[in-house]
Amino acid sequence: MTTSTAAPTDPLQVAIAHHRRGELDAAQALYAELLRVDPRRADALNFMGVLMVQRGERERALELLKKASTIAPREPGVWNNLGNALLSLGKLPEAEKAFRRSLALVESAEALTNIARIQRRRQEWARSEASARRAVALAPQSGEAWHYLSLALLGLQRSEEAFEAAVKAELLLPAHAQRREAYGRALWAAGEHDRAVAFYRDWLDKEPGNAYAEHHLAAALGQTPERASDAYVEKVFDQFAASFDTQLATLQYRAPQFVAEALAGVLPAPASQYDIADLGCGTGLCGPLLKPWARSLVGCDLSAGMLERAAPRGVYDALEKAELVQFLTGRPGAFDVLVSADTLIYFGELAPMFAAAHAALRPGGTLVFTLEALDAADDAPFRLTESGRYAHALPGLRVRVAAAGFAEPAVAAITPRLESARAVAGWLVTTRRG
Fold it and tell me: Which one of 23, 34, 41, 309 has the minimum C-beta count within 10 Å?
């Protein structure tokens, strides 16, 4: 957070103190009162905007910070915070412009580090290194600057230097799960597989039972558990919920559209005629596409954070926090249509899910889902990949679909999303209950 000096008697000082302690309700109430008295108070608009980013209310944050930047166009902190709001919405070019506007006013390690973040997302490793190094030169105690320097160096495959920078970042920064996750992914992407294994083992030594570290250690070791644990799925998606939609937009995510297109190819025209379940509904991206066919539409997901985002869409008749196999097992013959967009990628062995889906569907019911595709040269039925997701081979998939009592599936090759600017190979599968 970019701060400003204020007299001890200024109510803004009290609000900032609450904010720094994480007492967001108290801080928000004080900021709101200041803005009620003076709607054009730029410092209150600025801090309220920062708080809205923290609360996941990104559009509101953007509105507040844009207003602050108009009122106080020569305040570098306002431009930096505006850049953060734009970045949280996936608006990278606009975010970079805001950060550079901040730098044009005052060169700061914070703005330079934010530019290094954007350059890393674009895989502009050398530029990211240069920005991070300038930030470190300005603020040698900036853990964030050292963190992004380490990631840039990993991208450049200069692992020894990256390791040294990462150690400095860890010493300067408080423990942070998402930062550790970024290190693990970057080590793997840089081809440092042995170091990635050592990294996850060290993490587990420090945090025994950490679901994320356990899952990714298994992937790094080439192990293939039958599925991701419920604890892993909840952890990943609860922390991802606030930025889920905007992050997926930057990845050109299309799984919900593919699912809807598959349904349009096998169902009659929409007439609110079917009981439908959206398995692993997440923030509800499939919901509006399914609603025209739905007599009733139920969503289930393990992540409470995701369900909180799905509810305001107003398209689901019910939202259930549940593991999807258990959800289906408790509802025999309840549905005409089951869909699952990018959820079964956290399952390796799909036989239990297919059996539960068959039992939950009425005769003739439709099942549509997406998977990631396993390389044809791999002779395994499924594999846990370094991304933490599973990829599946078609022969094993067909065997399991048939064994559960479904008809021969129609399978189409799709690209559900991009990852690191590369297309992810996937399957769109449509079948019927016999």
Answer: 23
